[in-house]
C-alpha cells in the first residue's frame, strides 16, 4: 500500500503541473484574439464612418451654390485668400456654369473670340442682355489655375478706366472660367499688325491709345491700393472698347509689391518674347521698370506698325529696337512711321513718341523713366526730354532644325535668347 500510495502521488502532481502550463498558454492567446477582434471592429467602424462623411460631403457639394464651390476652391485648393474674411471682402460675383453654357450657345465656335495658352475666350450674352467675354481654362491641363487665382485675388483691388474689368468667375467641378467686360474692338495687335485694320488707326488714335495705356500702368504702379507689376504687357493684352479706348487685361502673371518694395527676383521667368526687359529675361529680376520696358516696346510698335519679334537677323538687320536706334542715331527716325498713317501726323509728336519709347527700352534699369514721368512726357509738349542711351534687346539664336516652328512660338525660355547691344554707327 505504501508503494502504491507513493507511486500515485507523483502522478497527481504531474497532472496538476500540466494543467498549470496549459493555462499559461491559453490566456495570452485569448487576449491576443480579443485585441485583434477589437482592433478589427474599430477599423471597420472608422472606415464606415469615413465613407459616410465622404458621401455626406459629396451630397453637400451637389447642393452647394456657385459661391460655396468657389470658396472651397479659393480657400482650400490654394492660397489665393488666406481666410474667409478676406474672401468676403472680395465681393466676388460668381456665375453658375449652366448660365455660361447658355450664354455662349454651349461654347460654340461661332462665339469663339480667340485662343491663348491656357484656354479659349468666348463671346457670351447673359440672360439680362449684358454681353461679356468668357475665358474658359483648358480642362485637360492644370495650366492657368494659378493665373486664374491671381486674377481673382486682384478683382476687388483694381478699378480704373484703362483696366479691363473682371465681372466674376465660375468654379465648378473641372470647369474654371473668368468673365470679363466685352471689348467690341478686341485687341490692339489686330489693329497695328493686320493690314486690313491698321489703316483705320490714324495718328491721333494711336497717340490716345499710348496715353491710355500709360495711365493704366501708372495706376498699377502708383495709384492703386497696392503696387502691381503686370509682367506681361503686350499688344494682345491691350483691349479696345467701342470708342477705341485702351484697357490693360490679363493679370494672370501680375505680382503685388509692398509699399517699400522696389524689385523682386524669380527663378521662373515667364513672359512674351520681345517685350521682356534684359534684367528680367536673363536674371529673373523684375520691377516697375520691367513694365516700363514693355511699354516702350509697345510705343515703338504702335508708331511703326511692326512687331518686335526678335527673330533671327543678318548682320545688317536688327529687331525693332535695334532698327529704331539706328534710324534715330542717323537722324532718320521718321522713316519708322507706319505707312498706313499717311501724311496726316505731327512730326514733332511722332519724334517725341519715338524718343520716349527709346528712353523706356534703355538697357540699364536706372536709366529708364518711371511711368509718372513717361505720362508727363507724352501729354506735355513743353516737358524737357533727355536723350536716350542704347537699348537692351535680343536676337534669337539661329537653329536650323527648329527655326520654322519656333518662329510661331510667342513664349520663350532663357535658353532661347541672348542679349545683344547695338551701338550707333
UniProtKB/TrEMBL annotation:
It catalyses: L-threonyl-[protein] + ATP = O-phospho-L-threonyl-[protein] + ADP + H(+); L-seryl-[protein] + ATP = O-phospho-L-seryl-[protein] + ADP + H(+). GO terms for molecular function: ATP binding; protein serine/threonine kinase activity. It is an enzyme of class 2 (transferase). Pfam families: DUF3403, PK_Tyr_Ser-Thr. It is found in: Cell membrane; Membrane. ATP binds at residue 135. It is a single-pass membrane protein; Single-pass type I membrane protein. Its EC number is 2.7.11.1. One of its GO terms (cellular component) is plasma membrane. Gene3D superfamilies: Phosphorylase Kinase, domain 1, Transferase(Phosphotransferase) domain 1. Residues 1-21 are annotated as: Disordered. The chain crosses the membrane at residues 29-48. Its main location: membrane. Keywords: ATP-binding, Cell membrane, Disulfide bond, EGF-like domain, Glycoprotein, Kinase, Membrane, Nucleotide-binding, Receptor, Serine/threonine-protein kinase, Signal, Transferase, Transmembrane, Transmembrane helix. Residues 107-393 form the Protein kinase domain. InterPro entries: Kinase-like_dom_sf, Prot_kinase_dom, Protein_kinase_ATP_BS, S-locus_recpt_kinase_C, Ser-Thr/Tyr_kinase_cat_dom, Ser/Thr_kinase_AS. PROSITE patterns: PROTEIN_KINASE_ATP, PROTEIN_KINASE_DOM, PROTEIN_KINASE_ST. PANTHER family: RECEPTOR-LIKE SERINE/THREONINE-PROTEIN KINASE SD1-8 (PTHR27002), RECEPTOR-LIKE SERINE_THREONINE-PROTEIN KINASE SD1-8 (PTHR27002:SF150). Belongs to the protein kinase superfamily. This is non-specific serine/threonine protein kinase. The lineage of its organism: Eukaryota, Viridiplantae, Streptophyta, Embryophyta, Tracheophyta.
